[in-house]
């Protein structure tokens, strides 16, 4: 089943849910800000997207600018920053089996649909 890492306050995240509904796709919602996100979940997303940890970071967030921007961070440190501050996670992330995308633009979801 498709899993969406969702932030209800994000218009792009809501658009991803609507896109999946419009395509008659069943999915489950993971509200990562409420339920938290683990290091293993992030590593799983990285493996399925082929992205680097920095690619999953919302670098315009104040938390990033105030605490991490301009520092020479390892991948592990970036992952830890996301775990400690889930708001930093780029969204929405849509996972389907062994594939995943950051759904920006929303049409990127098509890359992982069967």
From TrEMBL:
Source lineage: Bacteria, Pseudomonadati, Bacteroidota, Flavobacteriia, Flavobacteriales
Cross-referenced InterPro entries: Arsenate_reductase (IPR006659), Arsenate_reductase-like (IPR006660), Thioredoxin-like_sf (IPR036249)
UniProt keyword annotation of Oxidoreductase present: yes
UniProt name for this protein: Glutaredoxin-dependent arsenate reductase
Keywords on record: Oxidoreductase
Pfam families named in the record: ArsC (PF03960)
Top-rank taxon, per record: Bacteria
Oxidoreductase as UniProt keyword: yes
CDD domains, sorted: ArsC_ArsC (cd03034)
